[in-house]
């Protein structure tokens, strides 16, 4: 079973307002899939639907071969043990240190775990994102890139099979953004973590993507291998690539 | 030879659920006791399992690891052990935490003053839905608090004390000052009237009864609504806007429990203390007016007051304030969680929370008056 997520005839939106219609796609194990589209086209909405944060309007989502009932708290909690999320701004808790932020999922899900083991787990994750020396700092003392790396460490701490990232490069300088991309690729290569990355900036993610899902006008415009995007003669995708980052402000 | 050596055979799947029991196996052993960890069966290991082995490597110099499969050994190289990162352990916490925590709250409150007042109008059609949501949250909180007493999980360790400190320590000065001033004010106002009837001594009854039963609960409630309620709403609302509550949910944490139960319990512990302080200081205000304005000796004042006020009145004051405190926490949570997800939304929610809590407190006070008199 190589498909981590299967989406069938999924409509997403809010309170009856459909943002994206009839989505069909699959995410395979070990792939880095990038979801592309102008801002406001519904990328975050898809992500939050897959995460069970907003209910799907219709259609089916299966994770790890099992159809998900998004209304069942039990099903969702089981799912949450296998996924990690990197939110747009990092979404670290500002009242906790980096160490405490990364340790939070352990403390909440496995309060019985001895503190020495927790320390080992947290420090090795912080070291993997290069932040073990800042363990006792607070998020407000860090740059945006460091906050996102911490958030990535927190997303990884429970050994998820898949990590979702919402605009990981937004608000970062190109060098920091590229560093984050390399980090994601390393994590994929080393741990086999599957990534779903949402972005409206193509350049940042180019080097690491395997698959692409392009959204346009409320539908899937393209879904396939990332490298094939360049061989298409498609007016929308051409303008999207041409104009690069500042296409929609 | 065999006897003074501890052998632990790890299971096929050495995962986070099994680590606590493996730790139990080595508990009480001397640090330089020979331990043999046999991984002949182990085919799957997670980062908690690796952490266990790294911990042994770092702390038990005589621990040896047998039959480590190459694929598992490969994983080890990717997890730097705490030992190798030892130098950081010595770093001490700085005292900066509070500054940051409150900086954000202050910022949100400024926002509230700028943008909140324009948005105070409420659509009538929304009221029914809001009413329902408020009571849904109330019911949830009662359930989560109840649940917490039986199963101590789902909230951050130490958070109750942290919140208690914030609520009690940070608000007792303002609560005492206001209570004192209110005590002085009603004493002065009544003394004037009582003197006309030559009934000066009843000042003690009036101040004691009025403060302990009525004004201390009401004023404490109103001050806490502005001080604690606003900051709870600002904090929860900005966590909502910054997707921190979403992050909690996808970590398997219930935000309505994680954030609200510690605040409810902290409020429950802080109220009795604050009320005692406010009662004492408020009555003191009356005593001073009595002594210097109406020439009632302190001793006489207290004797007279204790004839009018009994333990029941004190407890009624406590109970009323407690209910007001719960109203504040639930209203703040309600406004914080239902914030509109925009930066201005935080300010709006904060203002609305203060208005809502004070209105509910006054309605509640009125209901108490009807029931208790
Ligand atoms: N909470 C909400 N309620 C109603 N509509 C929303 C909400 N959040 C976003 N939208 C709308 O849904 C659309 C898609 O938003 P979003 O998924 O955030 O876009 P993206 O992440 O691609 O920039 C936008 O038109 C936005 O206005
Ligand atoms: Mg978005």
Q: What is the terminal-to-terminal distance of chain B?
A: 83 Å
Q: Largest contact between protein chains?
A: A-B, 54 and 49 residues
Number of domains of chain A: 2
Strand content of chain A: 25-35%
Order of helices and strands of chain A: EEEHEEHEHHHEHEHEEH
**What is the CATH-assigned architecture of the largest domain in chain A?**
3-Layer(aba) Sandwich
Poorly predicted tracts of residues of chain A: 244-249
Strand residue content of chain B: under 5%
> What is the number of E strands of chain A?
10
Mean pLDDT of chain B: 85
Sketch the topology of chain B as an H/E string, one letter per element.
EEHEEHEHHHHHHHHHHHH
| Overall body shape of chain B | elongated
How many helical stretches of chain B? 14
- Radius of gyration of chain A, taken over Cα atoms and rounded to an integer in Å: 18 Å
Number of H/I helices of chain A: 8
Quickly give the structural class of chain A: alpha/beta
Average per-residue pLDDT of chain A, rounded, comes to 88
Oligomeric state:
heterodimer
Radius of gyration of chain B over all CA atoms, rounded = 29 Å
CATH level 1 name of the largest domain in chain A? Alpha Beta
CATH topology annotation of the largest domain in chain A: Rossmann fold
Structure write-up:
The complex is a heterodimer of chains A (249) and B (373). Chain A is of the alpha/beta class and 249 residues long. Chain A has two domains: 1-82 and 162-249, 3-Layer(aba) Sandwich (Rossmann fold); 94-159, no CATH class. Chain A has eight helices and ten strands. Chain A has helices spanning 43-50, 73-80, 98-109, 115-128, 144-156, 174-191, 202-205, 235-243, and strands at residues 3-14, 17-28, 32-36, 58-63, 66-67, 83-86, 162-166, 194-199, 211-216, 219-225. In chain A, the strands form two sheets. Chain A has a six-stranded mixed beta sheet, with helices on both faces. A four-stranded antiparallel beta sheet of chain A has the order 2-1-4-5, covered by helices on one side. In chain A, helix 6 links the parallel strand 7 (162-166) and strand 8 (194-199). Residues 244-249 of chain A have low confidence and may be disordered. With 373 residues, chain B is mainly alpha-helical. Chain B starts with 5 loop residues before the first strand and ends with a helix. In chain B, helix 6 (124-150) packs across helix 11 and helix 7 runs parallel beside helix 11. In chain B, the strands form two sheets. A three-stranded parallel beta sheet of chain B has the order 1-3-5, covered by helices on one side. Chain B is built from 14 helices and five strands. The chains are: A alpha/beta (249), B mainly alpha (373). Chains A and B meet through strand 6, helix 3 and helix 4 of A and helix 1, helix 2, helix 5 and helix 9 of B. The site of magnesium ion has 3 residues of chain A, from helix 1.
């Amino acid at each position: 079973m190589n498909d981590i997520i299967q989406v069938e005839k999924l409509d997403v939106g809010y309170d009856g307002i459909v943002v994206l219609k009839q989505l069909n796609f699959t995410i395979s194990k070990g792939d880095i899939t990038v979801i592309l589209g102008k801002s406001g086209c519904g990328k975050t909405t898809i992500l939050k639907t897959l995460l069970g944060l907003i209910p799907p309007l219709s259609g089916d989502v299966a994770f790890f071969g099992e159809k998900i009932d998004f209304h069942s708290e039990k099903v969702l909690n089981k799912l949450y043990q296998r996924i990690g999320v990197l939110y747009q701004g990092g979404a670290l808790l500002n009242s906790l240190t980096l160490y405490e932020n990364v340790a939070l999922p352990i403390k909440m899900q496995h309060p019985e775990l001895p503190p020495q083991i927790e320390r080992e787990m947290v420090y090795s994750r912080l070291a993997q994102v290069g932040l073990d020396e800042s363990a006792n700092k607070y998020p407000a003392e860090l740059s945006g890139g460091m906050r996102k790396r911490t958030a990535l460490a927190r997303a990884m701490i429970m050994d998820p099979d898949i990590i979702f990232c919402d605009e990981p490069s937004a608000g970062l300088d190109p060098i920091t953004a590229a560093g984050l991309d390399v980090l994601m690729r390393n994590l994929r290569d080393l741990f086999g973590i599957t990534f779903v990355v949402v972005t409206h900036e193509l350049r940042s993610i180019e080097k690491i993507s395997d698959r692409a899902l392009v959204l346009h006008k409320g539908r899937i415009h393209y879904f396939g291998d990332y490298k094939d995007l360049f061989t298409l003669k498609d007016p929308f995708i051409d303008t999207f690539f041409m104009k690069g980052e500042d296409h929609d402000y | 030879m065999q006897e003074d050596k501890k052998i632990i055979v790890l299971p096929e799947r050495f995962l986070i659920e099994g680590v606590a029991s493996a730790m139990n196996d080595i508990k009480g052993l001397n640090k330089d006791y020979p331990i043999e960890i046999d991984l002949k069966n182990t085919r799957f290991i997670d980062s908690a399992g690796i952490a266990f082995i790294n911990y042994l490597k770092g702390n038990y110099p005589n621990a040896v690891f047998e039959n480590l499969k190459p694929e598992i050994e490969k994983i080890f190289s990717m997890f730097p052990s705490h030992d190798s990162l030892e130098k950081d352990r010595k770093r001490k916490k700085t005292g900066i935490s509070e500054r940051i925590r409150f900086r954000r709250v202050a910022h949100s409150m400024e926002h509230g003053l700028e943008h909140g007042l324009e948005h105070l109008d409420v659509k009538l059609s929304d009221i029914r839905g809001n009413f329902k949501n408020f009571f849904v949250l109330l019911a949830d909180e009662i359930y989560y608090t109840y649940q917490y007493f039986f199963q101590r999980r789902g909230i951050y360790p130490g958070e109750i004390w942290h919140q208690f400190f914030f609520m009690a320590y940070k608000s007792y000065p303002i609560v005492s000052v206001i209570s004192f001033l209110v005590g002085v004010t009603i004493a002065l106002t009544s003394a004037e009237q009582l003197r006309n009837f030559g009934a000066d001594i009843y000042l003690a009854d009036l101040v004691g009864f009025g403060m302990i039963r009525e004004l201390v609960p009401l004023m404490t409630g109103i001050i806490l609504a502005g001080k604690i309620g606003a900051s709870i709403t600002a904090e929860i609302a900005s966590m909502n806007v910054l997707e921190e509550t979403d992050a909690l949910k996808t970590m398997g944490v219930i935000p309505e429990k994680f954030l609200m139960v510690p605040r409810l319990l902290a409020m429950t512990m802080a109220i009795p203390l604050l009320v005692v302080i406010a009662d004492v200081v408020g009555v003191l205000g009356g005593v001073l007016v009595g002594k210097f304005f109406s020439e009632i000796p302190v001793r006489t004042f207290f004797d007279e007051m204790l004839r009018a006020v009994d333990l029941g009145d004190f407890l009624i004051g406590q109970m009323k304030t407690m209910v007001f405190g719960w109203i504040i926490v639930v209203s703040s949570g309600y406004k914080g969680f239902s914030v509109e997800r925009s930066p201005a939304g935080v300010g709006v929610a904060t203002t609305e929370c203060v208005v809502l809590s004070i209105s509910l407190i006054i309605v509640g006070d009125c209901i108490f008056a009807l029931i208790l008199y």
